[in-house]
Amino acid sequence: MEKVSVNLENCYGIEKLSYEFNFADDNVYAIYARNGLMKTSLSKTFKMIQENKQDEIKDEIFDLSGTVNVKIDGTDITAKDVFVIKSFENAYESDSITSLLVNDATKKSISSVLKLKASFLKLLEQSSGIKITKVSGGKKVFELEPLIVKDFGFDEDSFLLNIDEFDVSEIEVDFRNVQYSSIFEEQVLKKIRSSEFQNKIDEFIIKSDEIYADFGFLDKGKFTLPKLKEAEKSLSKHSFFVKDNKIVLAGGFEIGDCDGLKEKIKEVDEKLKGVPELKEIEKMLSDVKGMAFKEVIEKNPEIVAYLKTDELDKLKKILWLSYIWDEEAKFQELRNKCHDLETEISTVNVDDTPWRDALNIFEDRFDVPYNMKITNLKSSIIGESIPRVEFSFTRDSNSVCLSRTDLESKDVLSQGEKRALYLLNIVFDIEECKRQKKETLFIIDDIADSFDYKNKYAIIEYLYDMAKENDFCLIIMSHNFDFYRTVSSRLCLKRENRLSAESCINEISLKQEKYQDRPFEFWKKNLVIKNILALIPFVRNLIEYGEDKKVGELTGIESDYLILTNLLHEKDDTERITFEHLKKIYKSYMGVDNFNPSIDNTESVCHEIYIVADSITNSDVDLENKIILAIAIRHLAEKYMIQEINNYSGELSWKTKRKQNNGSAQEFMNHVKTALNQTRELCTGFQQFGDKEKVKIVEQVNIMTPENIHLNSFMYEPILDMDIVELIKLYQEVKNI
Question: What is the pLDDT of residue 324?
Fold first, then answer.
């Protein structure tokens, strides 16, 4: 897998996205994308591909059919090529646990048994008229096997796991020629359960008892007419009537050949079929649904006694056992193979399996409060049921074991622990892909979200292990810039494989991340106007966390920190600060002052901020442009609110800690000068009297411009996440306020 070309349109919110991932030299890409931009949409699209549901991909909001063209080395991607790891799936359970529990030899034995089972169920399908599978609610579901399990009341939801429970010696009567579906059909059952039908059955049973009494060689419940029929077949098959062999039936009936026995059976049969109550029962089955059942009764009048409401459950078992008896040789072959497999499975040591290896990988790296074991080893190995994992919690010498269902119903796990459990199941799937040496494209969506730092780094280390697999290609997406940056660093990604997702007009664009060694180094070395302005918050951070050298030399302001604060907030001295002051401060704290020659040292910095902000367009998505816009928006908004508040003649209220204050506009402004968050305090005052539409605009300023515009090593993520289009829109609104 070297090249993966992705072309999408109308895919769950992605209007358009085109990109070719080149995995020839490096099998990992990292994508930074702010929340709500494209991560979930992309992972959902690939999940549908994984589930072979490409035709269902669409824009769900506008109900537009999606266009998906994804090729791997020029060939259309298939379901087996991709594996999507979502941020979290609450009830996710791995399908790979069974494969991780057994070796290849045992897998062959399992495959052999499952083939025999499928063949035998096909025979039961033909005998019973019940389909192995059916379509319900648009989905294919199993019908035959679950019905057998239900009719016998088995605890294990599996034909194979209950194979020793089928005892054909329990059959009272052989109904192998009666189809289950002809009786246990909804409309037919409704007739059978009716009081009229049940009364006729009672009357027929009385008459049939009288007939049985007339033929002393029959004993109802023990040696019935069906058993006499079976005896006749057996005697005929084994050529009993040779050498003048005879049978003597009670009542003085001596029979010396098959024809004589058949004649006696026919005599009893005709008497039963001639019972008027039987005819009345048959009349009640004259509609389309009842005709097949009517034929059953005509051919098997002895079945009537089993149609009593309290006998129906017994009849179900008799029918299934009759079908099994009819294929006894094949059933015995299947049972013997199952016994051999059980012996093979009994030798499995769970602690010496790939499943345990995968579990060890997880337990060695992640912090979780429980240990795990599989409680249904046999059924999970043969694939007859999902492995049931039990969770053991220990405190002091006390241990408590909970199933997955109990664990979730008690809701005792933290969100991080729930995510860890999800991740464990993902590890099982990944380890199985490793074992199969299967070429796989992994789409990984915010996998470290909501984990603490230790577990985040454990995830990164596991991603590193995945990246070492030549058969794996990874596309790792995150909205967390710190995680994205750390993954890129730990996995040693080259520049071309570190991407940033950006929203352009009607399209998502993936571009190489511009600042891969932190932007500050690049800005320091290239002191053009935009970079100089973008460095203001960063240098203020340096002063805040270090020593204020007071080199700015601005009359009235001794502190360098306050000089730069005046450039981030509208203050009395803001307009007086020039690039000459900035030069001195940058030289002292960063060791650079080689400003671009085009910059006039006597020019007001704030004035230049507005000029640059006016020039920024929707395509200027780099970080420095967003910072400058945020600063300009802040200044314009604060300048407007200060002017409006100073012109306000009414009373304003504000809080200092828990104390409520009221006073004039001047008193309020005195409070603002000492406040920790000037923008918010100004907004609080303006909200008390300002025009509603203009209040909405300044509230947006509070929301979209970070309150301190921090720009240390990783905290510029809030600004990076901002949409340049939204920032420009807000800037224009504040300008026109």
Answer: 96
